[in-house]
Amino acid sequence: MKLIVALLTAALLTGSIAAAEEPSCATPGTDNAFLGIQTVKLWPRTPPDAKGNGCYDIPALTIFDPQSGTANGSAVIIFPGGGYTHLAGNLEGRQFADWFTARGFKAFILSYRLPSHGYLLPVPLLDARRAIQTVRARAADYHIAPDRIVLIGFSAGGHLAALAATRPVPGNPNAEDAIDRASSRPDYLVLGYPWIGAVSLDYSHLNYCKEFHLEDQCAKLTREYDPDLYVSKDTPPTFIYHTFDDQTVPIQQSLGFFQALVNAGVQTEYHVFASGSHGSGLGRGNLSLDQWPGLLSTWLRSKGLLTADREAVSGQ
What we know:
316 residues; alpha/beta; Rossmann fold
């Protein structure tokens, strides 16, 4: 009897640990409003191409307010990475939301739908565009300026951010939905160790087509979802951070995107650190990599994004 009880207890504990380790997804609500945090749906009803009604089927924005009295009218939309299999919501989401709100930004983390849950491209791109349109359309409600929207993405989120920035939709002026009338083009783009070459015919590194068994479609998918092919003079001013010895996403990927930006005449700042692992976030205590957020802060200041837009903040 004692053995049976012990086995049942062990099984329950194992189940609890597994449940605790299962990555959670954002659930719309205002339970954390007292912390200045809330989560909202991207679509009020069923999202396009939805396969169910679970939280993995509902793209959402988690919104972080700056400290009272410090808002400057700038906004940042954050796309966490995770290889298109999960979202690194802490390392590449909340930590950056806190970093930006400490500098007066209103921060938004996008929980986009994932190929690992059956949502292949272009569905994540639909979510990305809708997120930018939502923030811009509701700029007055959020007390931000509609022309001070920064898009930042990491790893797979960097690929998605680069796609959203190079393939925006202008907005439909005749749409009934005010959000659909807004442009999805971000005003500024920031990429951290971006998986730019996610969709490519090069299988020597981490590859979207190989990961999701789409090799037979990869040539077509590459034409659709390689950001290098869509860079133009209208691509937003860009800041890129990468490490030379990244073993997951080769430096050549961000370098190729940088070259495309240069060729198109897009103002770009590109920082390559000699050493550092993929997924370094804000630096993770590395004496060298910890310096890159300071470089980003300087770049944001140079764009006027740390200077308060009093009209936007006051809502007048």
